[in-house]
Amino acid sequence: MDKKIILIFSTILLLAGCGGRTPQKQEEPMPPIGFRAKLYQHDSTKVKSGETFPGLMMRLGLTRADANTLYSRRDTMFDARRMKAGAWVDAYYSQADSLRQLEYVVYNHSKLRKTVFKCTDSLYMWNYARPTVVEDKYIDVTIHSSLWVDLLHAGLTEAATGQMVDLLANDIYAWTVNFFGLREGDRFQVAFKQKVSEGEFISLEGIDCARYSSGNESLYALTLPYSDIGRNYFDQTGKNLRKAFLKAPLKYNRVSSKFTYHRKHPVTGKVKAHTGVDFAAPAGTPVRSIGDGRVISAGWTTTGGGNVIKIEHNQTYRTGYLHLQSFAKGIKAGVRVKQGQVIGYVGNTGVSTGPHLDFRVWKNGTPIDPLTMKSPPADPLPAKYRPELDSLYNHYKVIFEGE
Known about the structure:
Layout: H1 3-19, E1 41-46, H2 53-60, H3 64-72, E2 88-96, E3 99-108, E4 113-118, E5 124-129, E6 133-142, H4 147-153, H5 158-172, E7 187-197, E8 200-214, E9 217-222, E10 254-257, E11 260-264, E12 271-274, E13 277-280, E14 286-288, E15 293-301, E16 306-312, E17 317-327, E18 336-337, E19 342-346, E20 356-363, E21 366-368, H6 386-401
Antiparallel strand pairs: 1-2, 2-3, 3-4, 4-5, 6-7, 7-8, 8-9, 10-13, 11-12, 13-20, 14-19, 15-16, 15-18, 16-17, 17-19, 17-20, 20-21
Helix pairs in contact: 2-3, 4-5
């Protein structure tokens, strides 16, 4: 018989034999939490103020007897006394005809730690800790709207964006970049670490390096893991980015009125000097001291400033914080404060048209513009670490600039 005919005949028999068998569908592996949540109807609720564990379970659909049984079996697995009002609870139900049966309840201690309750058959519970991993990430953002909005557009979650803005604006570049005056086209490049669990962002674990570019100028922020330099950031020359004074006493809010000797007062209508900077912010926003110093006064003034705090930082500089809603606990004349310490809260006291902070700086008794004030830097990087900083800078320069 022709070999070609034999080959065709054999192929037909093989295909016919295979066609009679139906491949078995492999069952999906059990999720780490211990049950297949997607098979059930899901509701979320919060623990009510004063609610007990049995009361919560009965509200979700468990009988009183079963709720009490679960409560009696908690042992050290779940301390019902630590059940917090406002904590999220997930309930999972099976549906058979018109009968809705509570199957599982998940109490969320945090994003990562949960207690699961089996509510049918043998009533029992177990704890579940979501696995986490720390990832190295990189983001490159050009300012078009605001740092917050542009980070969101670049793909960060709201939680990651909030933590990123806080680190950049209130820690790393707080002394060197005016975040109230970012311009379109300014650029931030950031190499950072983030903790994730099952694909969900958990927390920002730190920024390894950042580069801020504006026009033809750029400023690197590099850090090294040594206790004798702390968590300070340095530019590519080893100069400390931290300075004696913060750029602003508020976290990331906008300037509504600048320093001038000729301003029409919004309340009185008179043209007079405004020797400070107004920061628009919601009432209650925390106000920080821009530097270490001693409170020389904290109280009500009759000259239109409302509640005012004045701080003496050294023999040269004093600062003032006007129209405050209230003072932070313990703030009074004679108290020493640290840079970044909350001293009061934005308000609308005195002669004012709305919630804002009027921030003032005096140098040798003369008012100066806070937005153009020059602040001396902190200690530079110790010389013994300079080779390591140079190596780190060259590494990130390749990543950020492609050189």
